[in-house]
Specification:
By secondary structure, this protein is an alpha+beta fold. It contains 6 helices and 12 strands. The strands form 2 sheets. Strands 1-2-3-7-6-5-4 form a 7-stranded mixed β-sheet, sandwiched between helices. Strands 11-10-9-8-12 form a 5-stranded antiparallel β-sheet, with no helix packed on it. A hairpin with a 3-residue loop joins strand 4 and strand 5. The protein is globular, with a radius of gyration of 18 Å. The chain starts with 6 loop residues before the first helix and ends with a strand. 43% of the residues are buried.
């Protein structure tokens, strides 16, 4: 199991990639996203990558702590997306990572709205996208965390709700092959951006649709059935009284 990262091995695994010309690898780091943001402020090129085997200050949506046990794979990529691509980066990353997992491991990966990859109903990976401005130019960072060779039993806070690829496969998984597959697929979908094809493929993997859900937005809670998504990826929920609510951002759990 990979609990450390050798720069030479990562560089070799990514040979020929359009991204990774600026590459930083860490056995442990506070947050790959924070490091990628620092690179943006230094004027790094699009496609700069920060990769780590462990995070000590990882974070997820709504500023929650991202549990980052050893044996995982974490990476962030720096982008300067045109405005039309920005709202679709979470969708793009989730779909690409699910496809990469299926390419490398004999499992079926689904997507839970808006940013989790699930295998067998448990979380195997998550995405976070943050954007800001530097030097008068908007940038975005896609952060990805994948439970590759993680012993979930050693992290009681995620036992029962998370799984790892090695647990699902019944054997260790090659993290570098998975990294290459994920980077290639994210880059391809980003460079060959097709909103309609992206939305259709993402929607087809959404296990949330058709399920009873509870959406929490601040102090408001909405319960109903997730029936569809909008063209921008917002979740449409039909309440029990028949009324419709569109959730753009919030915490959604399957009831």
């Amino acid at each position: 199991m990979m609990h450390s990262l050798d720069f030479g091995s990562v560089e070799k695994a990514l040979a020929g990639c359009r991204w990774g010309h600026t590459l930083f690898t860490y056995d442990s780091i506070g947050s790959t996203m924070d490091r990628a943001g620092e690179l943006a402020h230094k004027g790094a090129r699009e496609g700069a990558l920060v990769i780590a085997a462990e995070q000590t200050e990882g974070r997820g949506r709504l500023n929650r702590k991202w549990i980052s046990p050893p044996g995982s794979l974490y990476f962030s990529v720096l982008l300067y997306p045109p405005i039309e691509k920005l709202p679709y980066l979470t969708m793009l990353a989730g779909l690409a990572v699910a496809e990469a997992i299926e390419e490398c491991v004999a499992v079926q990966a689904g997507l839970k709205w808006p940013n989790d990859v699930l295998i067998g109903g448990r979380k195997a990976a998550g995405m976070l996208v943050e954007s800001s401005f530097s030097r008068g130019k908007q940038y975005a960072v896609i952060g990805v965390g994948i439970n590759v060779n993680v012993d979930i039993s050693t992290s009681p806070e995620i036992t029962g709700v998370a799984t790892s690829l090695s647990e699902q496969a019944g054997m260790p998984v090659d993290s570098l092959n998975l990294l290459r597959a994920a980077i290639d697929r994210i880059e391809s979908r980003y460079s060959n951006f097709d909103k309609t094809a992206l939305l259709d493929s993402w929607k087809a993997r959404l296990i949330t649709l058709g399920q009873p859900v509870k959406a929490t937005m601040g102090e408001a809670t909405i319960e109903g059935t997730a029936t569809d998504v909008t063209d921008e990826g917002a979740l449409i929920i039909r309440r029990t009284d028949g009324s419709i609510c569109t959730v753009v951002a919030g915490d959604v759990t399957l009831s």
